[in-house]
Amino acid sequence: MDDTLYTRDVLRLAASLDDRRLDAPDVTVARTGRPCGSRLTLDLRFDAAGRIAEVGMAVKACALGQASAAYALARLTGQRADTLAPVERSLRAMLAGEAATLEAADWRDGVGQDWSGLGVFAPVAAFPARHGAVLLPFDAVRAAFDMRQAA
């Protein structure tokens, strides 16, 4: 196991994943990460204002994918596409090596939650093939918002 990627914090997050599906979700999205084959099925229910009201997930992934899913799962309720966008941009910039420091990134979402714990994935920037595992829940959520808007 690569200690650079699979830090104690990542492994703790991965172990905390409480994946469970929703009965009768408004939207279900399945995504597979490349090249590792991680798979995430996301169920969402929305409120009348378009915010995520309930989240369910089934995750079959490496520790990075499980950790990212666990972190997102704990923070998705109450989000809209526009409130989550700054966090996703910051995560993508960090993984691409564009964020000079974690402090420079915008880790606050539009509803005031702090996502700076995503900094645990900073070492993944050096491993582009692993970015997809970390981004998997964010890709699935964006696709779910797109599906809801198209319906």
Automatic annotation (TrEMBL):
An example molecular function term from Gene Ontology annotations: iron ion binding
InterPro entries recorded: NIF_FeS_clus_asmbl_NifU_N (IPR002871)
SUPFAM superfamilies registered for this protein in UniProt: SufE/NifU
Biological processes annotated in GO: iron-sulfur cluster assembly
Endpoints of the signal sequence: none
Protein name: NifU-like protein involved in Fe-S cluster formation
Native source organism of the sequence: Rhodothalassium salexigens DSM 2132
Higher taxonomy: Bacteria, Pseudomonadati, Pseudomonadota, Alphaproteobacteria, Rhodothalassiales
